[in-house]
């Protein structure tokens, strides 16, 4: 008995007295159908029929044993176990007691078996009730968000009809009303008890509903990481977690005042202007500021943001802290545009600002990226710029630089680039170590209801693909918004993974201030017209609490109104829109003070021969000991070494020379795309793989020089839109890096067309943002079918800003550089490795940055004639915009009857055909290597050299594709329209190429015949 007393004392559970003290009201304890307070058992301990069993044992001691038994039935003697089970089952006191069986042998075994059989129904009930409660807890954790009070308008019902998380559904779990006051032990997967391990069922349900079914709905149970799930449970389940100090509430009210009154001021001053205001989701501003505050506390120094146009002006004013007069002057219709570019509308512009965070008293840099109306297109761009800033400051864990992305609900669900961007989040070369996504959930698109806009329950369901927790919150509850944003920022700082905050709100006006939403959402907008503003609701709450006085509140409003009025007065002095005030990615020190390039001279891009040889031998070696490479790769490396010895290079080696030399000079290079490490056509091999040790690699390019810059070469996910946007953002961060994206085949850029059309082509004109990104697009008609033939060069050429009918007037010395400086991008189709080498080096050595589109070859990668001598890459050599014919035609140019202009791979087919026909002295072939800007000056030299020659443009592409429509008017301008320009090539077609090899060869021979039939065009004329 003494041992039993010791066991009971050690395992003594929470007593009934302790439980009552911890509750707001005294409630009897209960667990399952079997556990209750000791009070009903007192009749058993005082019963005469129980006396033989109790044998003088005190009631207090029995009570201790009873609670020990609740903890662990095996902690008490078997006879006590049977007694408590029977008593809980409602057996009379006399029957509850069973005399001990005779000791020893079969009699003891028979008695134990009988006791177990009699206790079994009660044990099953106990287990079933515990499991029922655990299932109920899990139901709230999994489904509670469906019945949370998320909709400020209270017009949207739960998205599912089988939500079983409320007290009226207890029967589903085998529980009923009589169980509500029974006490149950809480499972380890919930924190609703706080310091308590047992609670009445009624209290369990109450606390679960407080945690999961109020203004916050949490989706996280799909996450397959126990630590992360437990972390989230603690943040939302612990009692009293959502408590704020008086100072925090006043700060929140101040932020709500500024967010709301900014929109009201704009509406008052410019009621007929589009501004895509934030009315209906004013809590976005304190939400963003809370994320920034918490992140700053955690050590973040720089935040890059991207967002659509809704609420952008408010974010610029009250989050980024853009000068209000600079914003207000944008509404002046008489404002003249500066000379820098065409500009963009006010709600597309970006901003960069370094300021003190007043909450943490630390410096923080905020960058809001400029972006077009293609809503989510900015997402990967933001991620790329974030990755670049992390890279350049050595932030390998994302502790100093982070990104925040804002989304609209319809676009978040509907735009595929959202999915592509999420899939970059955990890839080694693309991760930014966690992004906070904030969805401004208007519950409507432009005019489209969610029920016809998406198939998922929520617009945020796409985030589940990367196990990102999703916090839905009623945007009309600012304190809930503030709490959720704090948790989101902490999640990002703790786990460095993405997280989504879904601000469920409404749009008080239509799509814009001029739109009539009642046309398409009559019921919603009738409710919106009745809706109190969130500032009014929150101010009334704080006034009722006594957290602020009416006078303080009105003074805060008057103070901000005065700030706006004074800024409005200053804005009238602005006469010119200086777009440079809106830069989101400044490059300090790269340009002169006036923004002009430091030099307009053309530097040589050649290298000393010893450097070429050194890089060549690195490219031919494995600079790591005990590294086993593939036998086929050994042959490739030996072939490279042979070429170095012969002083020649092919395409891959020419690229190696350019990259290696730039790395040696301190330029970081990042090459990204599908299969770029090896190269789609197995020509590059910049990453070597050990054939015996898994995941052991060697990158020879990082062994060029001891003090070289790093080389990043990375295979991407099978994405074009997302990855190209990412690389564009990376290139924005610094002008001193060569960032290249290579398409697996040139036509694959089709699915990245939005990034090309909206950011790369017009970026400098719209946002005065130079960018030096390089696109490598494999191209060539090899008879491989329509999808893998054409990089669609006509699309890039069509978007050039050059006038085809005007011959540029520049000095001969500056002609090439001035053209480059004035163009929106550079398009080349190199035919030699040396020219490819030079154009890559020129991209960094020139004094400004322009996007470079390189139409790269496929068959020329190994073509025996497509090799360059080291002589073409030595000091003093340059990129050749046009390569003239240097054969027999030069001996008697007046006798030349035809000059064929071409570009790229077709040159080698033309020269082969010319040799076969013996036209070496009558037909000249000139290669235009740089198509945009067009080399008017060098083309003029060639046309003047052959005064009696017909002008022919020859291309392998179809007539309505390729270069013809771009080149013809420029050739005509060059010769002052004195000579016609004839066409030799394939006829018009819908597809880029035939899928039949025989038909391909017939087409090839036909246009070659046309190019060299000297009578064909004369007869036509």
From TrEMBL:
GO terms for cellular component: mitochondrion; nucleus; oxoglutarate dehydrogenase complex. It comes from the Eukaryota. Residues 649-863 form the Transketolase-like pyrimidine-binding domain. Its cofactor is thiamine diphosphate; Mg(2+). Keywords: Calcium, Glycolysis, Isopeptide bond, Magnesium, Metal-binding, Mitochondrion, Nucleus, Oxidoreductase, Thiamine pyrophosphate, Transit peptide, Ubl conjugation. Transmembrane segments: none annotated. Its main location: mitochondrion. One of its GO terms (molecular function) is thiamine pyrophosphate binding. It catalyses: N(6)-[(R)-lipoyl]-L-lysyl-[protein] + 2-oxoglutarate + H(+) = N(6)-[(R)-S(8)-succinyldihydrolipoyl]-L-lysyl-[protein] + CO2. One of its GO terms (biological process) is glycolytic process. Its EC number is 1.2.4.2. It is an enzyme of class 1 (oxidoreductase). InterPro entries: 2-oxogl_dehyd_N, 2oxoglutarate_DH_E1, DH_E1, KGD_C_sf, ODO-1/KGD_C, THDP-binding, Transketolase-like_Pyr-bd. Belongs to the alpha-ketoglutarate dehydrogenase family. This is 2-oxoglutarate dehydrogenase complex component E1. The gene is ogdhb.
């Amino acid at each position: 008995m003494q041992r039993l007393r010791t066991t009971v004392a050690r395992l003594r559970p929470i007593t009934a007295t302790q439980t009552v003290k911890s509750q707001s009201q005294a409630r009897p304890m209960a667990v399952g159908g079997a556990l209750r307070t000791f009070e009903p058992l007192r009749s058993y301990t005082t019963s005469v029929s129980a006396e033989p069993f109790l044998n003088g044992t005190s009631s207090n001691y029995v009570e201790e044993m009873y609670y020990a038994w609740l903890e662990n039935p095996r902690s008490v003697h078997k006879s006590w176990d049977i007694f408590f089970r029977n008593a809980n089952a409602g057996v009379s006191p006399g029957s509850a007691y069973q005399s001990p069986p005779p000791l020893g042998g079969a009699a003891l075994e028979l008695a134990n078996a009988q006791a177990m059989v009699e206790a079994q129904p009660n044990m099953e009930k106990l287990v079933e009730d515990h499991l029922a409660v655990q299932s109920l807890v899990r139901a709230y954790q999994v489904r509670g968000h469906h019945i949370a009070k998320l909709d400020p308008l209270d017009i949207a019902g739960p998205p599912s009809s089988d939500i079983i998380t409320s007290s009226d559904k207890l029967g589903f779990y085998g529980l009923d009303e009589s169980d509500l006051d029974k006490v149950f032990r809480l499972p380890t997967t919930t924190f609703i008890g706080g310091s308590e391990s047992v609670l009445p069922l009624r209290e369990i349900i109450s606390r679960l509903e407080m945690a999961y079914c109020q203004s916050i709905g949490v989706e996280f149970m799909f996450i397959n990481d126990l630590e992360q799930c437990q972390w989230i449970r603690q943040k939302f389940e612990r009692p009293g977690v959502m408590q704020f100090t008086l100072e925090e509430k006043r700060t929140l009210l101040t932020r709500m005042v500024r967010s709301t009154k900014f929109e009201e001021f704009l509406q008052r001053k410019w009621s007929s202007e589009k501004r895509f205001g934030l009315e209906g989701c004013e809590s976005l501003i304190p939400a963003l500021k809370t994320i920034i505050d918490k992140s700053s506390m955690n050590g973040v120094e720089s935040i890059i943001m991207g967002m659509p146009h809704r609420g952008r002006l408010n974010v610029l004013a009250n989050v980024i802290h853009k000068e209000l007069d600079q914003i207000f002057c944008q509404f002046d219709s008489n404002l003249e545009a500066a000379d820098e570019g065409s500009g963009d509308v006010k709600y597309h512009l970006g901003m960069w600002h370094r300021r003190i965070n007043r909450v943490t008293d630390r410096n923080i840099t905020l960058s809001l990226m400029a972006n077009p109306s293609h809503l989510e297109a900015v997402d990967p761009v933001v991620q790329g710029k974030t990755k670049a800033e992390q890279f350049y400051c050595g932030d390998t864990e994302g502790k100093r630089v982070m990104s925040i992305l804002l989304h609209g609900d319809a676009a978040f669900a509907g735009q595929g680039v959202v999915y592509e961007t999420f899939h970059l989040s955990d890839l080694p070369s693309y991760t930014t170590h966690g992004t906070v996504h904030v969805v401004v959930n208007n519950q409507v698109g432009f005019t489209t209801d969610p029920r016809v806009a998406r198939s998922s329950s929520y617009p945020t369901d796409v985030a589940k693909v990367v196990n990102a927790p999703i916090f839905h919150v009623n945007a009309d509850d600012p304190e809930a918004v503030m709490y959720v944003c704090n948790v989101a920022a902490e999640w990002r700082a703790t786990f460095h993974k993405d997280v989504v905050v879904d601000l469920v709100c409404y749009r008080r006006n239509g799509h814009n201030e001029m739109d009539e939403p009642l046309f398409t959402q009559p019921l919603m907008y009738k409710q919106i017209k009745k809706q109190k503003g969130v500032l009014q609701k929150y101010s009334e709450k704080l006034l009722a609490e006594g957290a602020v006085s009416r006078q303080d509140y009105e003074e805060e409003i008057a103070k901000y109104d005065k700030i706006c009025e004074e800024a409005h007065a200053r804005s009238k002095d602005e006469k010119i829109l200086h777009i440079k005030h809106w830069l989101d990615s400044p490059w300090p020190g790269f340009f002169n003070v006036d923004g002009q390039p430091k030099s307009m001279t053309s530097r040589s891009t050649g290298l000393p021969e010893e450097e070429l040889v050194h890089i060549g031998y690195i490219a031919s070696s494995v600079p790591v000991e005990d590294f086993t490479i593939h036998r086929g790769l050994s042959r490739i490396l030996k072939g490279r070494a042979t070429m170095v010895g012969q002083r020649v290079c092919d395409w891959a080696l020419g690229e190696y020379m350019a990259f290696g030399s730039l790395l040696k000079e301190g330029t970081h290079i990042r090459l990204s795309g599908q299969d770029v490490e090896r190269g789609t056509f197995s020509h590059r091999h910049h990453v070597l793989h050990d054939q015996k040790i898994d995941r052991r690699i060697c990158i020879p390019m990082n062994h060029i020089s001891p003090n070289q810059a790093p080389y990043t070469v990375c295979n991407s996910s099978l994405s074009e839109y997302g990855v190209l946007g990412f690389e564009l953002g990376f290139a924005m961060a610094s002008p001193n890096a060569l960032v290249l994206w290579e398409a697996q085949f040139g036509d694959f850029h089709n699915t990245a067309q939005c990034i090309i059309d909206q950011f790369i082509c017009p970026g400098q004109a719209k946002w005065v943002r130079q960018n030096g990104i390089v696109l490598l697009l494999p191209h060539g008609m090899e008879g491989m079918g329509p999808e893998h033939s054409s990089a669609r060069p006509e699309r890039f050429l069509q978007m050039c800003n050059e006038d085809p009918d005007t011959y540029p007037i520049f000095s001969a010395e500056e002609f090439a550089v001035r053209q480059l400086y004035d163009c929106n991008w550079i398009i080349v189709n190199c035919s030699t490795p040396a020219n490819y080498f030079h154009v890559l080096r020129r991209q960094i050595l020139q004094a400004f940055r322009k996007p470079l589109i390189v139409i790269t070859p496929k068959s020329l990668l190994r073509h025996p004639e497509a090799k360059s001598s080291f002589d073409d890459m030595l000091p003093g050599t340059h990129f050749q915009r046009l390569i003239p014919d240097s054969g027999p035609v030069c001996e008697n140019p007046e006798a030349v009857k035809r000059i064929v202009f071409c570009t790229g791979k077709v040159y080698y087919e033309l020269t082969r055909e010319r040799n076969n026909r013996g036209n070496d002295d009558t037909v000249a072939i000139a290669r235009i290597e740089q198509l945009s800007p067009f080399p008017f000056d060098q083309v003029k030299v060639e046309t003047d050299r052959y005064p009696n020659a017909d002008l022919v443009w020859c291309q392998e592409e179809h007539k309505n594709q390729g270069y013809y429509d771009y080149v013809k008017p420029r050739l005509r301008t060059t010769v002052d329209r004195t000579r016609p320009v004839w066409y030799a090539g394939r006829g018009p077609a819908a597809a880029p190429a035939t899928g039949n090899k025989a038909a391909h060869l017939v087409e090839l021979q036909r246009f070659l015949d046309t190019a060299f039939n000297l009578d064909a065009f004369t007869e036509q004329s």
